[in-house]
Amino acid sequence: MAAVQVAGSLSCGQPREAPRELPPEQDNGFRRLSARLRALRPDDSSSARTEIHLLFDQLISENYSEGGGVAAEDVSTLLVQACRLVPLNQNHLVSKVSQLIHHLLNRLQVIVDEQNLDFLMGYTISAIQQCSSWTHMEILQALAALVYCNGSKCQKYLPDLLGKTGLLTTLSDLAQSDPEVRRAAVHCMANLCLSVPGQPYLEEPYQNICFQAFLTTLQSPKSSDMDDITFCMLLQNALKGIQSLLNGGKMKLTQTDELGALLAVLKKAMFHGLPGLNIEMPTVLYPTPLPQYDGRPPVKAQQSESSASRPTMNKKKKYKVKPKKNQHGEEEEEDSSGEIEVVPSTGTGRMNMHEGNTPHSSSLGIQGLPVDGSGASGKERVSSPFTTSSWKRVSSSESDYSDAEGGLQGKMRSYQAKVRQGALACFLSTIKSIEKKVLYGYWSAFVPDTPELGSPQSLSLMTLALKDPSPKTRACALQVLSAILEGSKQFLSVAEDISDHRRAFTPFSVMIASSIRELHRCLLLALVAESSSQTLTQIIKCLANLVSNAPYNRLKLSLLTKVWNQIKPYIRHKDVNVRVSSLTLLGAIVSTHAPLPEVQLLLQQPCSSGLSSSNSATPHLSPADWWKKAPAASSLEETSVSSPKGSLEPCWLIRLCISTVVLPKEDCYSGGDAGSAAGSTFEPSPMRLEALQVLAHLARGYFSVAQVYLMELGEVICKCMGEADPSIQLHGAKLLEELGTGLIQQYKPDSTIAPEQRVPVFLVVMFWTEMLKGPLPRALQSSEHPTLQASACDALSSILPEAFSSLPNDRQILCITMLLGLNDSKNRLVKAATSRALGVYVLFPCLRQDVIFVADTANAILMSLQDKSLNVRAKAAWSLGNLTDTLIVNMETPDPSFQEEFSGLLLLKMLRSAIEASKDKDKVKSNAVRALGNLLHFLQPCHIEKPIFAEIIEESIQALISTVLIEAAMKVRWNACYAMGNVFKNPALPLGTAPWTSQAYDALTSVVTSCKNFKVRIRSATALSIPSKRERYGSVEQYAQIWNALVTALQKSEDTTDFLEFKYCASLRTQICQALIHLLNLASASDLPCIKETLELNGDMVRSYLLQFLKSGAEGDDSGTAHSPQERVHMVKMALKHISNVQALAGDTARRTIMDFLEDILTVYFDTSGSQVALLGLSDR
């Protein structure tokens, strides 16, 4: 048994460490015994067998240092020699040599090389085939040690091992009479499934054989001849095997039955041996949104067994946190069945059982922040419950139980806990190997729902988190729950319980909302009942995941308030990981669906709200420190004008975060932090970084709260960016960017914030002047930290344009000079950030008419467009688009000096670069075509007349045409249509006479009739309605083609298979109708026959849509124009007037037909709208 335990303790998937040098006496002992063994020759005499027996015993009993050993090849050579000395007809010697193989490989952590493995594998397989069955146990142990991390080198033996009649297939079968042999065979199979990075994995047929063997093992009940501990080890090995298949083999569970069967056995194993539970599961779990399968009857006898299995409460154990008695009154009543622990005193007793009395409890826990163990006796060290070896080691000394529980019972519970941990680890791997949409079909099987009145709580992961006596298992269950919740935002977004649903059935949205509420309730119960710091950390992380994904804007209030109030005390917990995760949770609260009215109120609570005086989360701040007060008097006067009413109550969260970042840590937990550097006076770095992230979340989601502290936060940023730690500097720069962005949002034209509620511009100028005095320029120059440089560039681009123009001249020049200089950086991150920042600055009103700055920026951007990095080119193309927008804005100003001074050669360079960029990836292409359209719009007659420009104009338009037509991303095609519309706006371009005219119109008409994306169709229809003169539409045939295409597009405006496109149907019809009326307004006599012909064929359809167009309200369309009904009627009247004034050819009835058509539309419109308006003067009847 001991040998089996060692084999089971090998790290799953982790190659054994390279052997360390043995001490001289050990090394000599091994060499001496090895030399004696090598000197022996095969001999069948009794004395020879005795000598071999003794030599093997000496090698096994040699005192090797743990993890140490001689060279791997020496061990492998010795084992080969040992096997050669033992004929297969000597059962006792075969058993002994098998023990030797198993012992040396595990004790010395050796993986056998391929050549020696070949011989040893052949020997052990032959031994199983030929030796007596009583030897099989030891031989299988040896085989398990040989194949460990060697699966890829055992390919030729797989048919003998895993074939239909293979040894492992047979010995692991339910028909196998010896339970120990069956367990050892499953262990061998599990070791074969281990993956080694870079090595080929088991072929799919063998993966399926192993998976079915493991699944059958887990589904089978314990046989009468198998003891409980062997059964636990059997389950552990099967779980380890499935986990290896999912992790290393990347096995895909595509069949519903296959996945359902696995989830069923995992759910059963998750509760294996849990006191008071006897769960019965179906063979397969099927995906369903309904509550399902709970085979546990609420029997009172089980409850008493559960309570009897718990030790009495240790009265000396004290809680740092005491829940309010009235807060969970109703929950306690609901759970009085004893199914789930909710009473804090029970939790205290539970935790004393294995925390207070277990000397090794500090080694158990959940993955957290890296700590260096500088705390007293390393108690704050954190490890993951799913490290590969944590649940496979079966030594009872590593259990979660104290020796006081006594012998076999304690050992038994340790093995059972390992099974539960193994099932949870396997479940975690399953979650990672299937799509989330598949996983959420099984939501109700693993996530709790509010129980109906009088019924017990269903079994779920929260049952383990609240009830399991092992803190390690509780942490594992919470980690699995976190993995389920991670990325669940879309699934949970359907939840809704704001309105009362009084129906005969429960809607799915209400059921999910109920599940979310129950998760909140259970996790908060677990929070107050938990005393293991590692498990506590995982509870808080799980809450943070839940908060990040739950749709609070669709749920009843109070959920976040409860979380907020209960997490406050943990911010001052003695364990640094608990403190950090508490801040992470607060950050999740202020970032989810921000801004939420409930959170807005929480932020405005008094500092002492929800906190006890003895354990206040509000730092005790000395009056001398500026950041410890509400905004200082001088700042308060300045900020009060920009603060919302009632916001002068200090925000305790902002004060806490500021204090955490810049103040020395307090004595109450300064000695226990393993995360802070030796001699550091500040909080540990992870704590400070998390506090800065919370401040950034506040600035992004609740700027009205953060703006009161603008100058104080500025000082915090300066302190952070002046520190030596680059990560602190980086987070300081991120906070600066968020504050800058918040200020920009306040001053946007569409901002809903009243002017008196905004931060005054003079205060913004003061803020940025301080930023530019030192820390920000230093960060921009810190070339050894490119990420910091890039973040500083992003921060610099978030200056409010109105404030930039008021900055001192030297500060403005500093910003521009730094950015232009950094554009030459060899680091791609820095170059991309710089390109983007220049694209922001070129839109500033105070800079956009500066010809020199615009020209310098253009040259810098053009250089970045040649970069090898796609990200740099994408940012540069975006900036080029912005720069060309600036050219258009300048063109529309009365002062022509900018156009006259701007270099024609530079325009030529920009056109060439944009043409090249339009052939790049979609990320670059979309902005490159935008720039091309603007540049062609900007070209002046003096440029177009030059021969050098003629060719480049032709190339530019051909690039746009090809982009309109290609099957690229819809954003690219939309931008290309938009750019084509810009080209049509330039009266100097020879549209209508140039050879490319027909190609341009052909491309747009093709898109307007056939593109799958309606927004692209809308944009092409808009472009077709831009030319302002009839001659710009080209020949009569060209005009007819455009007219017919628009009519066809109108007819097909509802033809789509994509439901998402239907919402754009009305906008598309509006735009096409406007284009048709625009064409009528420009029609010549030659065009009328074509129009008449179309109306005769499709007149009824066109009439109905034009009437809809007239009757519909002032709905906006994709072109950005919205017309009132009066304006639309006026457009039709003007078209009618134009047609009536056209000099028709003799005998041509087309004009009369068209006029009748338009008059009929207007008559019907006025009749149906109740207006009696004469149409006199609009026709020449």
What are the key terms here?
single chain; 1181 residues; mainly alpha; 55 helices; 59% helix; 0% strand; disordered N terminus; phosphoprotein; DUF4042; ARM-type_fold
What is the 3D form?
A: elongated
The helicity comes to 55-70%
Terminal Cα span: 111 Å
Could you list the spans in which at least 5 consecutive residues all have pLDDT below 50?
1-26, 290-385, 387-405, 610-647, 1114-1120, 1172-1181
Helix count from the secondary structure assignment: 55
Instruction: Tell me the number of strands.
Output: 0
Rounded mean pLDDT score: 81
Instruction: Report the sheet-strand fraction.
Output: under 5%
Rg of Cα set: 38 Å
Structural class: mainly alpha
Q: State the major sheet.
A: none
Give a written overview of the molecule.
With 1181 residues, the chain is an all-alpha fold. It has 55 helices and no strands. The longest helix is centred in the middle third of the chain and has 27 residues, at 407-433. The chain starts with a helix and ends in a 12-residue tail after the last helix. The relative contact order is 0.03. Mean pLDDT is 81; it is low at 1-26, 290-385, 387-405, 610-647, 1114-1120 and 1172-1181. Residues 1-28, 292-365 are annotated as: Disordered. Residues 313-326 have a biased composition (Basic residues). This is HEAT repeat-containing protein 6. Residues 301-312 have a biased composition (Polar residues).
